[in-house]
Amino acid sequence: MAIKNVWFITDDLSAIGELAAGARKLGEHVTAVLFSEQDQAKEAIACGADQVYLFKKTEGSFIEGYSKEIAGLIRAEQAGLVMVYSSASGRLIAGRIASQLETSAISNVSDLYIEDDHVVAEHMVYGGLALRKEKALSDTVVLTVGLGVFEANAKDESREGKVTEITGEAENAGIKVIEIRPKQGETVNLKVAKKVVGVGRGFANEEDLKMAEDLASATGAELACSRPIAEGEKWMGKERYVGVSGAVLKPDVYVAIGISGQIQHMVGVNDAKTIVAINKDKNAPIFKQADIGLVGDLYTVLPKITEKLKA
Amino acid sequence: MRIIACFKAVPEEQDIVVEKDRQLNFDKAEWKIGTYDLNAIEAGKQLVEAEGGQLTGLAVGGTALDSSKLKKNILSRGLDDLYLVIDEKAENADTYQTAKLLEASIRKIGEFDLVLCGAGSSDLYAQQTGNQVGELLGVPVINSVNKITPQGDKVIVERVLEDSVQVLEVSLPAVLSVTSEINVPRIPGMKDILAAKKKPVTEFTVEDIGAAYVQPTSLVLSTQAPEQAERKLNILEGDSEETIDEFVKLFNEALK
Ligand SMILES: Cc1cc2nc3c(=O)[nH]c(=O)nc-3n(C[C@H](O)[C@H](O)[C@H](O)COP(=O)(O)OP(=O)(O)OC[C@H]3O[C@@H](n4cnc5c(N)ncnc54)[C@H](O)[C@@H]3O)c2cc1C
User: How far is the CA of A256 from the centre of ligand 1 (A)?
Assistant: First the structure.
C-alpha cells in the first residue's frame, strides 16, 4: 500500500531528482518544498512532484525560519511521510518540523520501504557497526535522507503540477545572517573516482603525505583519508574523509595506507571491489578486510612501491 | 554566561562485539561520555573561562548514568555542577522523547544563556537532539556551529554548510549544536579530577522534572551488523625486494 501524501524538502537542487523518485515510489500524491526560483519547481514536477511549495530564498536568508510554516502545511494536508535532504540546513529543518509535529526525525536513512502499512527505515548505528531497522509509528514520519538512496527517474517535461509561491518572510526572531563566506579549498567528488588512495594516522607529518600523492598520481587515483587526518590534523579537507560520518564510496580499488581499519572507516569502502592495505602492524584490523596486504613500514615500502609501479 | 552542556552516556564502541549471527554484544562495553559531547563541554568551558559564568552539565538517560566513574569523568571536565535525569523510562529514548526530557530539565534548572550539544551522539548519531530541543524551548537554534564569539547579549557563530560558512548573529538564550572540529577537548589533569569531587550533582527522575510521557516514534525491528564482503586476504609480510615485487604484481593486476 502506498502512503497517501508524501512530501520532500530540499535546499539542494541536485537532490530533487532522487527525492522526487523516492517520494513517487512510496506515495500517491507527492509534494515538494523548495527554496528558490520558478524553474526548479518545474524540474521537481518533471521529476515526479504533483505539487510544489516554493519558498523565497535570497542571498542571506535563513530558510530554516520557514520550519514552523512548513510544519503547518504538513499538518493541514496530513502528510504521512516527510523526507528532508540531509544537508546541514535540511537537518535543522527536519528537527524543527519534527518537534512541531511532536515526533522524532529519523536520521540518515539508507533504505526506506513500506511493510504492513508502516514506513520502515534503515540506518547505520554504533558508528557503522550495525544497521538498524525501525518501524515508524507516528502519523507523520519525518526523516532525513542523503543522495544515493533512491534512483532518479527520467524527467517527464509534460507532467503537470501545482506551484504555490510563498512570499512571506521567514520567521527568524533572534537570528541574523551577517555574512556568507564561500568555503576555502577545492571541492572533490570522491564518489566518482574509480581508484582511491586513503591515508591514515600512520603518516607522522603532513609533508609525508607527498608519498601518498606520488602513489595516487602514479595510479591515477584520488586521494582520501581517515577522519583523524581531516578533523584532528586538518591535513586534508573534510570532504576527503571516508567512513560512516564521511564519504561512502564504491571504487574499484581502495588503497588504505597507515589506516588501522576501524569499522567507522571501513563502512565507507566496504563496497570497494578490491581493498589493498599497507600497515606496519600485522594485527591491524585492516588485514582482515583486505584482498591484498603488505605488512611493512610505509616510510620504507611506499616509495619503493610507487617507483616500481611507475617502471 | 549561564551555559548548559548536554551529553549522553553511550557504550564504548571499541568494545562492542559482533557475534557470529551478526548481533551486537555489549557485555564488554563500558558506558562513557559520547565522543562528540566532549566538544560541547569544551566549548562551554572556553566560553566560561573567557567571559565568566557558570557551566552546567546535563544528561538524561537510563541507569547507565548512575555510575560514579562516569560522573567523576564528566565533572573533571570543568563543570560547575551536574544535573542527571536517571530513569528507566529515559532508556532507549528517541530524539523527540529525549528532547522533551531535556526541555523539561532545562526549564527546571532555570535561566540559561546557551544550551550546547555535540554534533551527534556517538552511538546513534541522529544529530537531532539539539535541533529538537531548541524548537521545543522556542529559542533560536543552530546546528553545525564551528565557532562561537560572545558579543554582549548575543553570540556571533560560524556555521559550516556544505559549500559555505554562514556567519550568524544569534540572540540569547539559544541552543547550539557544535561540530567535532570546533575544538580539541582537553584531557583532565590531576587538579581537575580532585576538584570534581567537590562539584554538586543533582539527580532527578522523570516525575521530578514534570515531564509527561511521550509515545515512542518508532519500534526497533532489528539491529544487526551488515554482511561483510568476502576478501582474498592475500597478506604479504616484509620489505625485501621480492616481497615488494610480489605485492606490486598483485597490486598492478587489481589496478587493471
Ligand atoms: C561515531 C564515530 C564515527 C566515526 N566516523 C569515522 C569516519 O567516518 N571515518 C573515519 O575514518 N573514522 C571515523 N571514526 C574514527 C574511527 O573510529 C577511527 O578512530 C579512525 O578511523 C582511525 O583512523 P586511522 O586508521 O587513520 O588511525 P589509527 O587507528 O591510529 O591507525 C593508524 C594505523 O597506522 C599504522 N601505522 C603507524 N605507523 C605506520 C607506519 N610507519 N607504516 C605503516 N603503518 C603505520 C598503525 O599500525 C595503525 O594501524 C569515527 C568514530 C566514531 C566514534
Answer: 10
In chain A, residues under CATH classification 3.40.50.620 are: 3-166
Q: Which superfamily is assigned to A3-166 in CATH?
A: HUPs (3.40.50.620)
In a domain, B235, yes or no: no
Q: Which amino acid is at B60?
A: V
Model ipTM value:
0.93
In a domain, B233, yes or no: no
Question: Range(s) for CATH 3.40.50.1220 in chain A?
Answer: 190-310
Compute the nearest-CA separation of B198 from chain A (Å).
33
- Band of pLDDT at residue A189, cut at 50, 70 and 90: confident
Q: List the one residue out of A152, A83, A153, A150 whose CA is nearest residue A111.
A: A150
The single-letter DSSP state of residue B61 is E
Question: From the CB of A260, is ligand 1 less than 6 Å away?
Answer: yes
By the CB < 8 Å criterion, does B125 face chain A? yes
The C-alpha cell at B108 is 527546571
Residue A132: partners with Cβ closer than 8 Å, 6 or more residues away: A122, A123, A124, A125, B220, B222, B223
Beta bridge partners of A179: B167
Task: Report the CATH number of the A190-310 domain.
Answer: 3.40.50.1220
Q: pLDDT tens digits, residue range B207-233?
A: 999 998 899 999 999 999 988 789 999
Cβ–Cβ gap B130/A95 under 8 Å: yes
Q: Between vectors from CA B141 to CA A227 and to CA B100, what angle results, nearest 5°?
A: 95
Q: What is the CATH number of the domain that holds B109?
A: 3.40.50.620
- Residue B238 C-alpha cell reads as 616484509
pTM: 0.87
Partner B contacted by A177 (CB < 8 A): yes
Inspect the interface and report whether the beta carbons of A130 and B237 lie closer than 8 Å. no
Are the beta carbons of B94 and A104 separated by less than 8 Å? Answer: yes
- The CA distance from B108 to B99, in Å, is 14
Q: In this complex, is the C-beta atom of B232 within 8 Å of any C-beta atom belonging to chain A?
A: yes
Interface check A275 vs B, CB under 8 A = yes
**Range(s) of the domain holding residue B160:** 2-204
The predicted model gives A80-108 an average pLDDT of 97
Q: Does residue B240 belong to any structural domain of this protein?
A: no
In a domain, B36, yes or no: yes
Number of domains in chain B: 1
Starting at the edge strand found earlier in the chain, the sheet holding B154-160 runs A175-182, B164-171, B154-160, B141-151, B174-178, B114-117, B2-6, B54-61, B81-86, B201-204
pLDDT for B91-143, tens place per residue? 899 999 999 999 999 999 999 999 999 999 999 999 999 999 999 999 999 99
Among B245, B247, B250, B256, most A C-beta atoms within 10 A, so best to mutate, is B247
A173/B247 CB distance under 8 A? no
If we measure between CA atoms, which residue out of B130, B112, B114, B108 comes closest to residue B36? B130
**Does residue A279's CB lie within 6 angstroms of at least one atom of ligand 1?**
yes
